[in-house]
Amino acid sequence: MSSDRHNQTPAEMEAAIEDLKRQISTATQAGMQRIACEPENIQQGLAKLVLGLIELLRQLLERQAVRRMEGGSLTGEQVENMGQALMKLEEKIHELAGQFGLKPEDLNLQLGPLVTTRKE
Q1: DSSP string spanning the chain?
Q2: Residue of 16, 5, 29, 10 lying closest to 113 (CA atoms)
Q3: Of 8, 33, 38, 107, which sits with the fewest C-beta atoms within 10 Å of its C-beta?
Q4: What residue spans define the domains of the chain?
Q5: Tens of pLDDT along 81-119?
Q6: How far is 5 from 46, CA to CA, in rounded Å?
Q7: What is residue 2's predicted lDDT score, i.e. its pLDDT?
């Protein structure tokens, strides 16, 4: 991955950093959904939070991959490999969510007016 970062222009890197800063800021300012702390559902609440964050990161990676693909900084093989990796990650997230009795829509984090992890 470190060699991929060298293929990004400074403007692309700055845009990605600013996007991440905005999302983190929104997440910390918005009232994050509370984790259910009752003993019988603490695991599910924690799984929901962790898997929701992983899903957010997966979507950020997907958006960055699309930007890089549209910018022409990826080879066909890199596009294929990245697409396969992102699909496998999404499948694994859904598999783990199912193990905790969660549906994919349960992983939607509400991070304020600027960001949502819901699929459009």
Answers
A1: -HHHHHTS-HHHHHHHHHHHHHHHHHHHHS-PPPPP-STTTHHHHHHHHHHHHHHHHHHHHHHHHHHHHHTT-S-HHHHHHHHHHHHHHHHHHHHHHHHTT--GGGG--B--SS-B----
A2: 29
A3: 38
A4: 2-107
A5: 989 999 999 999 999 999 988 988 888 876 655 455 555
A6: 32
A7: 42
